[in-house]
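Priority: medium. Attachment 1 of 2:
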């Protein structure tokens, strides 16, 4: 029996390390520059946590959760997203007693039983930020700006911000009524999936993938026409800041997208997504928004919040892999010219590693085969350990990538060895 990775899952191999590290580094460094701190929550939680926050009639909770009853009889789910877990941790650990807002970021695998396709997996990674404890539009801007800086640093082309406001809970209820009134006129034209949406989650009609529903949605009422004056002011102030960003940095583009509603129940006011030029799910690089009611729903004090999560696979796929230089993962392969010198080579290798020189001792083979090994693993250098060298307290360094010249260096002069290997 040949085992295969489960559908919608994949292996991250050593050759992928450089690009994955580059993305993670850009995310972490940018978040830290804005004063965000790392948080990590468990991969599984009480299923109810997601039912209450993401929403019982959302696709995620209805169809996509990996849920099971554990041996103690509790219903557990692998996390489909991390906002709920972060808010649970925020309350449970009393972070609301610290100075607010709490600025938090996370990185790790999420699980959704979705139909796999390009950019859509069943186990995928998210980097996310959550700013908890500030209701101003300035924090909406802050998280949108963080996302922009990350995507810009990574030089991903064709990025656009889509933004909308759903207003507050009461606004949303009024709006949903209007939306239903509108779609009622077309109910017989709607495909089956959308008739179901009409009943269960009418907002989702706006991001239907069905051609006929897309056409009908064109003239549907807009959320912005039904939100309260406070929500409207919040939205307009935010748009002004985005205009300013666009005037300072013309590569930043945004569009108010009336159909953007997002597929999770906890949002109020601002919702946003960054998209790339790619088609289908791959094109939605990250999504987020404000979720002021959520902490209270989970039993905490009323605490407004805003954040986003970015799909790491989608970012990695956008990057031109050839542009990321494939750094050699090894600095030196010790070539053992005389087998009697294996012991002393071990000492040299240890000495190198203590000095952060990445070192491998070549396998016990002919010198030619040892050299082939060093070349095949893309080492920066081959270092010959022979009787002559040891007697004179020297080593011979042969560069394998650039000049291919060979030089002798004093064996104890670690600084010089490091310098020639560019460490
Ligand atoms: P989401 O839109 O469900 O939002 O996911 C955020 C991002 O995760 C998506 O834009 C996409 O890049 C990536 N993603 C989602 N599902 C998949 C998948 N099956 N395969 C690959 N990538 C995927 C949330 O998760 C919210 N928690 C975001 C948030 C944070 N809102 C406020 N704070």
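Attachment 2 of 2:
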């Amino acid at each position: 029996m040949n085992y295969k990775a489960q559908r919608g899952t994949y292996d991250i191999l050593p050759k992928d390390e450089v690009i994955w590290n580059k993305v993670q580094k850009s995310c972490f460094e940018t978040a830290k520059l804005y004063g965000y701190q790392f948080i990590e929550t468990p991969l599984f939680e009480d299923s109810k946590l997601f039912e209450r926050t993401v929403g019982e009639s959302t696709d995620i909770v209805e169809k996509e959760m990996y849920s099971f009853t554990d041996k103690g009889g509790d219903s557990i789910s692998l996390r489909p997203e991390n906002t709920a877990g972060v808010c649970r941790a925020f309350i449970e650990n009393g972070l609301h007693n610290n100075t607010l807002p709490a600025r938090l970021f996370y990185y790790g695998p999420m699980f959704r039983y979705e139909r796999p396709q390009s950019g859509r997996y069943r186990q995928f990674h998210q980097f996310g930020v959550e700013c908890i404890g500030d209701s101003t539009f300035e924090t909406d801007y802050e998280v949108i700006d963080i996302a922009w800086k990350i995507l810009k640093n990574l030089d991903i082309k064709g990025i656009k911000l889509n933004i909308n406001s759903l207003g507050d809970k009461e606004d949303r209820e009024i709006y949903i009524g209007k939306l239903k009134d509108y779609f009622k006129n077309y109910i017989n034209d709607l495909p089956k999936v959308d008739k179901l949406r009409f009943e269960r989650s009418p907002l989702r009609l706006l991001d239907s993938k069905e051609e006929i529903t897309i056409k009908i949605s064109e003239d549907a009422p807009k959320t912005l026409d039904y939100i309260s004056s406070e929500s409207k002011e919040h939205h307009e102030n935010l748009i002004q800041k985005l205009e300013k960003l666009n005037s300072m940095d013309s590569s930043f583009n945004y569009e108010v997208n009336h159909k953007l509603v997002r597929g999770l129940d906890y949002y109020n006011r601002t919702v946003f997504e960054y998209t790339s030029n790619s088609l289908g799910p791959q094109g939605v690089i990250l999504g987020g928004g404000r979720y002021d009611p959520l902490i209270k729903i989970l039993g905490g004090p009323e605490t407004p919040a805003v954040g986003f999560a970015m799909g790491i696979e989608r970012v990695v796929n956008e990057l031109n892999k050839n542009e990321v230089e494939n750094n050699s993962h090894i600095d030196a392969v010790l070539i053992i010219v005389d087998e009697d010198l294996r012991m002393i080579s071990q000492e040299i290798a240890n000495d190198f590693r203590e000095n952060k020189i990445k070192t491998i001792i070549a396998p016990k083979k002919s010198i030619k085969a040892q050299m082939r090994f060093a070349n095949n693993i893309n080492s920066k250098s081959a270092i010959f350990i022979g009787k002559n060298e040891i007697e004179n307290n020297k080593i011979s360094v042969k560069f394998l990538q650039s000049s291919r010249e060979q030089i002798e260096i004093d064996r104890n002069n670690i600084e010089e060895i490091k310098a020639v290997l560019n460490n």
